[in-house]
Specification:
By secondary structure, this protein is of the alpha+beta class. Helices cover 18% and strands 29% of the residues.
Length: 611
């Protein structure tokens, strides 16, 4: 049975258990995003080979009755007063409790001394005391473990009772040593029996001074195994952390909780899920009650594949300055002028399916530094042709520390006011962000000018695996407009007939072929007149203009005809109709795969009735 140690304030003061949690401060990130980002950052920093890969797993399950007894009697059998963990029994249902286990392998584990006041050998790492005992971090660690070392408080926040059970295997004194210790966090300080306590608690094996140390050796490994924890193989290193009674923030069950963490892995760590030739940097595993949840596959996702493609192109450019990007991708070095410094590389990509996905990440740039986790998605100016743009900015290696020091505890922003710069010196973080935004403002203005009279005010809102659409119109009433509620035949009409698109384009299948329908209405025109309506489809280039010449082997959109209200398709190139008219007319084109098309419609008056 493990023993409880409650930390008292010393005569020279101390920190209460809420310090790490409070240091996180306000953030726009949800709890499970924070859990993923913090735990994965720690795992990645602890990889045994700097150019190697790691495994990262999240498993949620309900302990058996016997396992619950072990946790509540043998491990956390003694509970402190005035803490969240005091109410541990309230989270046991049908004699069972739920746990969330976050584990990694291919990492060092938590090695080094087990006491914070022991210096250890020269150059020896202090991972165990830094994670389990200390708050904050040593400057000797550089940028490993984040910049502050306080984000681990989110793991205690993830538990409704503030309890975690930490198991690790690390190389220590020439052999691999299993270690297991219980830790609590997130509680305030309190008075008990005339003494004042910080609210920080540990469960382990008591030493001569009453302070508990981790359970070690075979006993530690067997105890972790008895609880069903995913732990390293006997001769490997790594860490497993059990979050007891996980919180229900934003979720209603364990499956939703792990799915939220898996989604967070996709959003913030997709660069590490890419196979750059040697397999992904991080092998993800997610399970809930033995049910597997898909791991991130960014290239198979309609949004993240755009960021991933831009990232891979940018990475190639960094490795080879002479590399020529594909037509959808543009790389822009971001530099400061005084002094002349390379701040990083911006790579942006015109979507290969240039229609809206409805994602909040459209028209954003993924900001990242080493270790290539996404810090933030920076909103940028949208393009006037409605084609979504996705960008990636990778900071230059020698700028890594500047950007890192501009981040808050949660590492979810670049706050240029926090950047470490000299008085009156240029701020590289501010310069980089301003230049990224300016790049897209310029593109937006240029796109608007280039598309004048050709591009529509927006892209067709159609989602399809086989192709994509852009709609635009030239001539009288040339662009898509919102449909009027009704027509008033007695109202004054424009004397010249105009044509406009009604609503959104739509995809369909006719005779086994993918087609796209465009609905139009002709308004105005002198009574008794007739108009000739013509439509033409052109392929859209990556810049938003029309393709001037078509490759010999390229599939082009073909006009199939006009679709009547009864479903009959007329193959006439020109539709002649009397005006004024309230009828809707529908043009049908073939939709080539992986191609954006723009449709031009004109209405030409043919004759005027005379009395």
């Amino acid at each position: 049975m493990l023993s409880l140690y409650r930390q008292q304030y010393g005569a020279d003061g101390g920190l209460d258990a809420r310090s790490a949690d409070n240091a996180i401060g306000r953030t726009s990130l949800g709890l499970w995003d924070l859990v993923l980002r913090e735990s994965l950052q720690n795992s990645w920093d602890a990889r045994t080979e700097k150019s190697g890969s790691i495994s990262f797993a999240v498993d949620e399950y309900e302990l058996s009755v016997e396992q619950t007894r072990i946790v509540t009697r043998d491990i956390f059998g003694e509970l402190p007063p005035h803490c969240k963990s005091t109410d541990l029994h309230k989270h046991i249902f049908d004699r069972r409790i739920r746990v969330l286990v976050i584990s990694d392998t291919g990492t060092r584990g938590l090695g080094g001394p087990i006491r914070a006041d022991v210096s250890g050998a020269s150059g020896e790492r202090r991972d165990f005391v830094d994670f389990v005992r200390n708050l904050g971090r040593s400057t000797a660690k550089g940028l490993e473990g984040g910049t502050y070392g306080l984000g681990k408080g989110v793991l205690y926040r993830a538990s409704q009772v503030g309890l975690c059970l930490v198991y690790s295997q690390a190389r220590y004194n020439g052999s691999i040593e299993p270690r297991l210790i219980g830790v609590s966090g997130g509680d305030g300080d309190y008075d008990d029996d005339g003494r004042r306590y910080t609210g920080r608690n540990w469960w382990g094996v008591p030493g001569a001074d009453g302070i508990v140390d981790p359970l070690t050796g075979r006993s530690a490994r067997e105890l972790a195994e008895s609880l069903g924890m995913r732990i390293p193989m006997e001769h490997d290193t790594g860490t497993s952390i059990m979050v007891v009674a996980p919180d229900f923030a934003g979720v209603t069950n364990g499956l939703d909780r792990v799915a939220a963490i898996a989604d967070a892995a996709m959003k913030w760590a997709w660069p590490h899920a890419l196979d750059m030739g040697k397999g992904p940097n991080i092998r993800f595993v997610f399970t809930a009650d033995s049910r597997s949840i898909p791991s991130p596959e960014p290239l198979g996702h309609p949004v993240y594949r755009e960021f991933a493609s831009a990232y891979m192109e940018g990475r190639q450019r960094i490795l080879n300055l002479g590399y020529q990007s594909n037509w959808q991708t543009t790389s822009t070095p971001i530099r400061s002028m005084r002094p002349s410094q390379n701040l990083g590389l911006l790579t942006h990509r015109i979507s290969h399916a240039p229609v809206t996905t409805g994602s909040e990440l459209e028209n954003t740039v993924a900001l990242m530094r080493d270790p290539r986790m996404v810090v933030k998605y920076l909103p940028v100016s949208a393009q006037p042709n409605g084609v979504p743009v996705f960008g990636v900015f990778i900071s230059a290696p020698d700028m890594n520390e500047k950007f890192a020091k501009s981040e808050p505890v949660t590492h979810d922003d670049w706050v240029y006011q926090q950047a470490s710069v000299g008085k009156n010196a240029p701020n590289p973080v501010r310069i980089a962000i301003d230049k990224i935004r300016e790049t897209f403002r310029v593109l937006s203005v240029q796109g608007a000018k280039a598309g004048s009279g050709v591009a529509s005010k927006g892209a067709s809102r159609v989602s399809a695996a086989l192709g994509s659409l852009l709609s635009g119109f030239a001539g009288s009433g040339a662009e898509r407009q919102e449909a009027a509620a009704s027509y008033d035949l007695g109202a004054r009409r424009p004397r010249k007939a105009t044509i406009r698109q009604l609503g959104e384009s739509s995809l369909d299948v006719m005779d086994g072929e993918m087609v796209v329908r465009y609905g139009f209405a002709v308004t105005g025109g002198r009574p008794g007149s007739a108009v000739a309506v013509r439509v033409e489809a052109r392929v859209v280039t990556e810049s938003g203009g029309n393709e001037s010449a078509s490759p010999a082997d390229a599939e082009m959109p073909r006009f199939l005809g006009w679709l009547s209200s009864n479903g009959t398709l007329s193959s006439e190139d020109v539709l002649t109709m009397a005006v004024p008219s309230e009828d809707e007319i529908t043009a049908v084109f073939t939709q080539p795969a992986e191609t954006a098309i723009r449709v031009t419609a004109t209405a030409e008056e043919l004759e005027v009735a005379r009395s």
